[in-house]
């Protein structure tokens, strides 16, 4: 069974919306505004590219990343990696041709089936709505979180507000950096 890893930049109050400056959100770009850049705080991002064998995205994140990431040196290891996009509306004609093999999945059952295939870890970037659905369905195995020392208030959240039984997490890696960012890696306890 493959490991499904949710990777996120998250504010202390759980917001994940527009960390890179995407338009339409009041605090867009919060990961680099007033936060000193320290390369060591982002080491996990390079490690994710080396360890992941596939990427899973929601439609909105796919449409945001696919025009940009294929040409960025920072994401070169993702270029040819198989990608899976969970969407009820995208068609094959909507997919870009320069970002490696991409498969559209229509349901969370298809994501569960993908996890049952042979292969290594599957990484989820962005995809706030998909992350909440995956978590509620019990499909996430690990969280890679870079927690920023900010309270953003309104915005898309990483975790759902669904009334459900507690889900226990085990901290397996952590570090705090001089700029206040905290790396927190949790395994989901089943």
TrEMBL record:
The protein's matches in InterPro entries, at most eight in alphabetical order, are given as: DHFR-like_dom_sf, RibDG_C, Riboflavin_Biosynth_HTPR
Q: Which residues form the Bacterial bifunctional deaminase-reductase C-terminal domain?
A: 2-182
Any one Pfam family here would be RibD_C
Checking SUPFAM superfamilies in the record gives: Dihydrofolate reductase-like
Protein species of origin = Streptomyces hydrogenans
Protein name per Swiss-Prot or TrEMBL: Deaminase reductase
The opening ranks of the lineage are: Bacteria, Bacillati, Actinomycetota, Actinomycetes, Kitasatosporales
């Amino acid at each position: 069974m493959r490991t499904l890893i949710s990777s996120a930049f998250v504010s202390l109050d759980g917001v994940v919306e527009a960390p890179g400056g995407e338009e339409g959100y009041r605090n867009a770009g919060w990961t680099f505004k007033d936060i000193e850049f320290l390369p060591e705080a982002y080491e996990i991002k390079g490690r994710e590219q080396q360890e992941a064998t596939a990427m899973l995205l929601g439609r909105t994140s796919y449409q945001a990343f696919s025009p940009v990431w294929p040409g960025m040196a920072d994401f070169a290891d993702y270029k040819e990696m198989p990608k899976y996009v969970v969407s009820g509306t995208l068609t094959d004609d909507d997919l870009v041709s320069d970002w490696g093999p991409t498969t559209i999945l229509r349901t969370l059952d298809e994501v569960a089936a993908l996890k049952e295939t042979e292969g290594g870890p599957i990484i989820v970037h962005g995809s706030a709505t998909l992350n909440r659905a995956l978590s509620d369905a019990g499909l996430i195995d690990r969280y890679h979180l870079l927690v920023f020392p900010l309270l953003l208030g309104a915005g898309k959240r990483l975790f759902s507000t669904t009334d459900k039984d507690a889900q226990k997490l085990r901290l397996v890696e952590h570090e705090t950096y001089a700029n206040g960012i905290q790396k927190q890696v949790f395994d989901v306890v089943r």
